[in-house]
Amino acid sequence: MHSGRGHWASRVGFVLAAAGSAIGLGNIWKFPYITGEYGGGAFVLVYLGCIAVVGMPIMLAELLLGKLSQRDPVGAFRELEHSRSGWQLVGWLGVASAFVILSFYSVVAGWALAFFARSVMGVIAAGADPAMIGGLFSELYANPTEQIVWHAIFMGVTIAIVSGGVHKGIERWSDILMPALLMMLLGLFIYALTLDAARDGARFLFAADFSKLTPDAVLEALGHSFFTLSLGMGAMITYGSYLGRDANLVRAGTWIVILDTVIALLAGMVIFPIVFQFGMEPGAGPGLIFKTLPLAFIQMTGGQLVACVFFLLLSFAALTSAISLLEVAVAFFHDEVGLDRKVAAGGIGGIIFLLGVPSALYGSFFDFMDQISTNYMLPIGGLGIAIYTGWVLDRARAEGGLGPGVSAGLIAAWLQVLRFVTPVLVLIVFLHKIGVF
Ligand code: TRP
Q: Are 238 and 5 in contact (CB under 8 A)?
């Protein structure tokens, strides 16, 4: 292990941190919405298939590259290739993606904080005026100053945690935030089960309507399986690099993927019963959480408490994801440039904050940052990681690296999927997203 480099103190701490990266706005907001739109249960089945053939293999590949190299995403390729080969461009792209994604992700996280504050202060509470509540989001959206203040607060917290280091910062806070998130979500889930519309919610989410399963839906499931697991930019390379050599990546990766999937399904089972119980529309897209849900909250007894819990859990989910995004860049500047961790976290976090300001000001800039990262940078990065691991990385290292006790058959199957199946599927999604077909 490199001197001055942190590492995870426990296996559970690592799994919670990595699951914290995966579980984010993608799970609580996007997954329920696209699942509903694309036919519920049928879509969920396809999504699970995508997790198995695209998500899981790339997850293992990223963790492996990190564990073998004990370096940041750029350093990982340098180390493994023993030279400044072109493969390190995949790492560079990942570090760049961290800047781009975190800049607008933090603005959205700021909205979650703003709505949490409105819930605590009793603005979102039973009996509030629906017209006022319906306008809350547009009001915030039209107020750059407030958005920038919350964005700054969110980045400040993220910087503070990452500054603490791998064990004392990231792992310690994941140990607190992730169980808290899970408890809050379970609490809301139990509440949702008591609603008459729990059945409608479950039907909406799980009843398999294969007629809605268009090719578009399949591609959406593929793309989302990628984003929701934080793949394609080296976040899992970075987290994997703080693992010891004896770590079992298959076991850890399976836990991360299961936690991410279960949380997404639970979020759907919280949101849809509430939406249906209070006569709302499920397909509101970006407004589902910030417009539809508050209108439901003000109709329920104890709505203020439910709103507080919901927006706090959303903020926690965003925070643990933001930590991993900042950590990718911090690891790079620490490992490759030699910057002190605290200086790197503060400096890079500050730059990312500034980069996010235009996203708070202009919706078009926000969309640009979102699209260039999700549609281009992540798929290209993921493709690079799959091809490198499947075709270029020394075969013995790839086969031996997943960990002790992993069966030879499983390793062989993983490599075959990574070589032949994953790249083709990712390429198809990429070409579709950029409009080739
Ligand atoms: N997975 C997170 C979510 O679902 C987002 C995220 C965090 C991410 N880190 C990432 C996406 C790295 C891609 C790459 O909200």
A: no
- All residues at 6 or more sequence positions from 185 whose CB lies less than 8 Å from its CB, including other chains: 263, 266, 267, 270, 313
Task: With residue 268 as reference, give the H or E element that holds it.
Answer: helix 249-277
Place of tokens 């089972």: 269
Q: Is residue 6 included in any domain, yes or no?
A: no
φ, ψ at 40 (rounded to 5°): 60, -120
Query: Average pLDDT, whole number, for the chain?
Result: 93
Q: State the Cα–Cα distance between residues 22 and 232, nearest whole angstrom.
A: 12
Inter-residue contact 263 to 180 (CB < 8 Å): no
Tokens (6 digits) for 140: 């915030």
Dump pLDDT digits (tens) for 234-259.
Answer: 999 999 999 998 999 999 999 999 99
Which residue puts its alpha carbon closest to atom 9 of ligand 1? 230
Gyration radius of the chain over CA positions: 21
Q: Is the pLDDT of residue 13 over 90?
A: yes
Which of 240, 257, 292 minimizes the C-alpha distance to 32? Answer: 292
Full residue range of the structural domain in which residue 416 is found: 11-433
- Encode pLDDT of 48-59 as tens digits: 899 999 999 999
What is the Å distance from ligand 1's center to 321 Cα? 6
**Ligand 1 centroid vs 322 CA: distance in angstroms?**
8
Q: What is the largest CA-CA distance in the chain?
A: 65
What's the one-letter identity of residue 405?
G
CA distance 415 to 418: 5
In the chain, how many domains are there?
1
CA distance 242 to 240: 5
- 126 C-alpha vs ligand 1 centroid, how far in Å? 33
- Per the listing, tokens 């989910």 go with 317
Ligand 1, atom nearest to 232 Cα:
14
* 41 within some domain: yes
Q: Which atom of ligand 1 is nearest to the CA of 373?
A: 13
- The owner of tokens 């703080």 is 242
pLDDT score at 324: 98
Please say whether the dihedral angle defined by the alpha carbons of residues 276, 279, 285 and 291, taken in this order, is positive or negative: negative
Question: Given its phi and psi angles, is residue 39 left (phi above 0), alpha (psi -120 to 50 degrees) or beta?
Answer: left
411-to-143, 393, 396, 424 alpha-carbon distances in Å: 52, 14, 11, 20
Q: Is residue 4 part of a domain?
A: no
Tokens in use for 63?
């963790």
The answer to whether the CB of 218 falls within 8 A of the CB of 45 is: no
CATH assignment at residue 361: 1.20.1740.10
Q: 428 — phi, psi (to 5°)?
A: -60, -45
Residue 370 falls inside a structural domain = yes
